[in-house]
Amino acid sequence: MDPTSLTIHELRDRLIRKEIGARELTRHFLDRIERLDTRLHAYLALQGETALREAERLDRRSDDLGSLPLAGIPLAIKDVICTRGVRTTCGSRILENFVPPYDGSVIEKLRNAGAIFLGKANMDEFAMGSSTENSGFGPTRNPWDPSRVPGGSSGGSAAAVAADLCAGSLGTDTGGSIRQPASFCGVVGLKPTYGRVSRFGLVAFASSLDQIGPITKDVEDAALLLQVIAGHDQRDSTSISMPVPDYVSGIRQPIKGLRLGIPKEYFVQGMSPEVEDAVRTAIRKCEELGAEIMEVSLPHTEYGVAAYYIIAPAEASSNLARYDGVKYGLRVSNARDLLSMYRQSRSRGFGPEVKRRIMLGTYVLSAGYYDAYYRKASQVRTLIRQDFLDAFERCDALLAPVAPIPAFKIGEKSDDPLQMYLSDVLTLPASLAGIPGISVPCGFSSEGLPIGLQILGPHLREDLILRIGYQYEQHTEHHLPRPAL
User: Fold this and answer.
1) How far apart are CA 201 and CA 212, in angstroms?
2) Do residues 438 and 461 touch, judged by C-beta distance below 8 A?
């Protein structure tokens, strides 16, 4: 069997038993990337030689590799997370040559756990997008149908996992950017509670929303990766100082007796009938496994898109003000004066979607408009958060679709930003509320495109949604097929 098709936990067992070496495994993945990634463009940069050297070092260790939870496991990292000495572009021309002098916290934790880094994954520029078409270095293609998008903004991370170009990956989720590409690519994607995973070393898009999480081939792998990267970090003021439970052992508990709510607002007008059918079939499977199913209401869901596209661009306009051509990043050489240098550097370095959001964010924060837009959106955010708190008084977790449609054609929504924004209508509310969510494969469309089931839980209950996802996964086979490449 080709080892690139195996899950992290399957590979870990083989590495510990010395059935395969870390260098041999890494070579298998690098060879596959060389053969296939010219078609998919999941990676922006590879660290092949460095990865092989690190794998050789692990192979030479005489002690038990079982003490390292990810020893020899090859991973892809979304190119928005700082990696010491390795170019980190955020998918943007303005950071085309930026090389961080330090590792983000999650990278430190993965290194300490023995992980091997294959390279940096493609993404929408500064994580602004739902299709990975906004990358400054060209789009990523969906492994199930290369004419379609892989989702975004973590499209490269999800496509790499689906195509067996890595054993697992890290993405980031600001408004659905882990869950939606996981759904489109037929893999598992987990957005943790805001603050559960440190953001130190994550290049900021919207600081009150951004969260790092795993994208994997199955739920057990997601639990393994989350176990490593979760926890308090003093370098991140928003990091939550709470104990991290044993996610891996907890997934094996049955779901019998759990109360699972179905938000009626999430089955929206215009949803693909195939998506609704797949999700409702998944809900019935959970009921067969002993869960109690009940309808709940999240009445402010319809305002999620409007609130998000005020709050996130406002924070982005502030965060991206630092890219002015002065300290790092692109600087034009022919500017007449300082103002001209600012204008030309930012005009040339940022793509159209980033410019659109900077202008929108600057507008809603400007004098005379702050109260009408940003303050009002923040109040709506509070109402959305309260909706979830009220729902979790009645039920333990929520089941819903991830996206209204399967993966769409490349270019299909490029000229209509509003339609692109509306594709996130079912993932944005959980991000605004800061709660955890996971996408688990639950079926395929008639065209063979994956469909995801979204499981949402209360704050810090990643253990619960992982448990539900795992038990559902163990009684279905939707996570097993792989795209024919």
Assistant:
1) 11
2) no
Predicted TM-score (pTM) of the model is 0.97
Sheet of strand 437-444: strand arrangement: 43-46, 116-121, 74-78, 168-173, 211-216, 188-191, 437-444, 450-456, 397-401, 259-263, 292-296
CB distance 125 to 351 below 8 Å = yes
Active site residues: 78, 153, 177
pLDDT tens for each residue of 184-205: 999 999 999 999 999 999 999 9
Helices (H), 320-427: 338-349, 352-365, 376-394, 417-422
Nearest-angstrom CA–CA distance, 297 and 395: 11
Percent of the chain having pLDDT more than 90? 89
Confidence of residue 20 (pLDDT cuts 50, 70, 90): very high
Contact 445, 484 (CB under 8 A): no
Strand partners, 197: 230
Cβ neighbours of residue 305 closer than 8 Å, sequence gap 6 or more: 421, 422, 424, 425, 428
Report the mean per-residue pLDDT for the chain.
96
Sign of CA dihedral 108, 109, 112, 115: negative
What does CATH list as the number for 3-258? 3.90.1300.10
Give Cα separations from 138 to 44, 87, 400 (angstroms).
9, 17, 32
Task: Decide: 407 and 145 in contact? Cβ < 8 Å.
Answer: yes
CA nearest to 168, candidates 127, 118, 132, 130 = 118
CATH 3.90.1300.10: which residues of the chain?
Answer: 3-258
CA–CA dist 187, 169 (Å, integer)? 11
Side chain identity, residue 192: P
Q: Which residue has the tokens 């891996």?
A: 248
Q: CB under 8 Å to 124, separation ≥6 — which residues?
A: 91, 130, 131, 132, 133, 134, 135, 152, 153, 155, 177, 353
